[in-house]
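Before surveying the methods themselves, it helps to consider a single example record, giving the amino acid sequence and backbone structure tokens:
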Amino acid sequence: MDGAVTDQMAEIGAAARAAAAELAFATAERKHAAVIGAAEAVWAQRQAIIDENTLDLHHAAEKGLSFALTDRLRLDEGRLRGIVDSLRTIAEQPDPVGRVLAAWDRPNGLHIQRVATPLGVVGVIYESRPNVTADAGALCLKAGNAVILRGGSDSHHSSHAIHACMVDGLRSAGLPATAIQLIQTPDRAMVGAMLRATQWIDVIVPRGGKGLVSLVQAEARVPVFAHLEGICHVYADRDADLEKARRVVLNAKTRRTGVCGAAECLLIDWQFYTKHGGILIEDLLKAGVEVRTEGELLNIPGTVKATPADFGHEFLDMVIAAKLVDGVDDAIAHIRRHGSQHTESILTENDATADRFMQRLDSAILMRNASTQFADGGEFGMGAEIGIATGKMHARGPVGAEQLTSFKYLVTGDGTIRP
């Protein structure tokens, strides 16, 4: 690896470690003040941020960036208001550090507590999502962690403008400005340096497409919180309420196609189809969605014949795969075979069927009669998320401030010795 990159990583990492040591005992009031200060700075500088975002959008158009990626990149006053609201929500949450998770007394006279503590230094690698600069910075700060941010070149100007606001918040609260660092160089070698920086970084969070996440998971020596793909399923059960199902299916696919919680496969129970026909498919077609399917569903005008690869594919576009299944167990089997353990939703009024679906699937998020687009930390009441984790170690599902903590044991004796 290039010596200059190694030196730069060491400089950034050492500063982050020093900041993390200070944040670990920072008061809840100072952290609250820093996040509120950042929110106020974002709103005060909103026009400057939009101007910088315009530069990014111009470069995106020149590069021919896809609609989904451009949509993630775009900022306007409404989206900046959303960032400000998220920052304020994070600020007002209870401080996750210092929570007593469990406490007990032992016959040997020891009093033992398990207490929440910061992870230390978090590395976040992301693509065309400038809002991650604010979300990740605030969530890590709230949990007492320093964070090293490496944004993609597509969001370069926007991310730098938002990062400046985060640093304003830190300084106004008397916290180290190096608690939230944004890597300045576009050199991709810095990504590799972060993935190997076990001396400086405690966990890596990738936010981006399959290519980025695959790279991180394959090459990281630092532990990773990530999901590879959001292959989300919606299953319309025979006992589904028709109007609820129509609303949820359309929203799950079309609200925003480029987010990881967008539905990518619709499973329809044969008995639902016998009762209601292809109305769910027809709704999607009318909304402009390309429906790739097989068998009986191909008789619906406008559908397209699916290939085997369409099932288990993350389209991130106005495209969905659809299939008829024979009851909830057949739906469960299909999801186990083709899903990515991200988010699945069952549409049913039958409690026993819903329970079976939720007990027998092991995705990070399971829903009933709700759109998969709710797979979002903000919608879960976390203010925002640093990512969705589908692994089974430590954090799972939306990763908020509470999930960015670990724990330590505090043991108190009274001259107690072990015989």
Observations:
- The chain has a mean pLDDT of 94.
- The two ends are 53 Å apart (CA to CA).
